[in-house]
Amino acid sequence: MECPFCAETIKYEAIVCKHCSRDLRVVRPVILEIQEIVSELDGLQRELDRVDASLARIRFPFRYFTKHTIAYVLAPVVLLVAAHIVVTIKLDVAPLYLRLASVIIPLPFGLALYARQKIGFRGAFLVGVVTAGIAVTCMLTVTGFNDNVPIVPGPWSNGVKLSNISRVSPLRSRPATFLVY
Ligand SMILES: [Zn+2]
Q: What separation in Å is there between the alpha carbon of 11 and the centre of ligand 1?
């Protein structure tokens, strides 16, 4: 800790400062109390942040919802669909790259959502599921338009059409990809 008289660093147990030789017995309880108050204040500040966040959710539900939907749902969806277009249509390379992208792209969004928005694991997971659903739907739509096949694979799809759709199915069969949310 720091000596309150000369500001030099001294041992925590010291009763006399080795630098300025002042008696620390009287001031030590005050210093300890101040440290306690500071850590208590930190806790209160965190609590206040939490309350502020939930208050914003209650007071301006539309603004909150729009802002966070854009930041945590639409942004990763746009990036995922862009990655899907680049990997499967523009470059036509192995779907492994798409799988990698589908893990890497949502990761920072999921972590930011969990760390900053205090919505808990279940809330974050739900947002992840919704994002994954929208992203997969968009990818199927894009593939559908590009290859001129039905968007939803059904019994009417023949083998060729299914093989086209199976390009995006790795995403769908990998729910763990979006577990980071
Ligand atoms: Zn001192």
A: 11
